[in-house]
Design a protein that fits this description.
1 helix
Length: 130
């Protein structure tokens, strides 16, 4: 594969991801704050844990609002593998997640973080840390 072809494919993929993130932002969920999973939200000294399910080639919920220091756990419920990738390097890329595999990242700084599946770049999500 020549370098020009590869650069063109990478640029096209990035454009698709950016368009998907923009579309996703315009369809942001209206349900407000995400629910903490497993009852670890505050009080115990442990960070709150929030779950994002990967199902039907989508992150559910697509957008979550969490406090600083929260742990986000992605769980793949699809039959296909997925890789969770931060668009700005806020957390390490997950390994390929097979069915029922999970990946955890902790976000300690306030901000808006977008992510996508590197295998299926139309799959995008957003985390808002307060």
């Amino acid at each position: 594969m020549n370098a020009r072809y590869f650069r063109g494919r990478v640029a096209a993929t990035l454009l698709m991801v950016m368009a998907a993130v923009a579309t996703s932002a315009s369809r942001a969920s209206t349900d407000g704050d995400a629910q903490a999973a497993g009852g670890n939200a505050g009080g115990s000294g442990q960070p709150a844990v929030y779950r994002v399910e990967i199902s039907n080639f989508a992150f559910k919920p697509n957008e979550i609002h969490v406090p600083a220091g929260a742990r986000i756990v992605w769980v793949n419920r699809d039959e296909e593998p997925h890789v969770v990738v931060s668009t700005n390097g806020a957390f390490k890329n997950s390994p390929a997640l097979d069915t029922n595999d999970s990946y955890t990242a902790e976000l300690t700084k306030s901000g808006t973080y977008t992510y996508f599946c590197s295998i299926h770049p139309m799959m995008v999500g957003k985390i808002v840390v307060r």
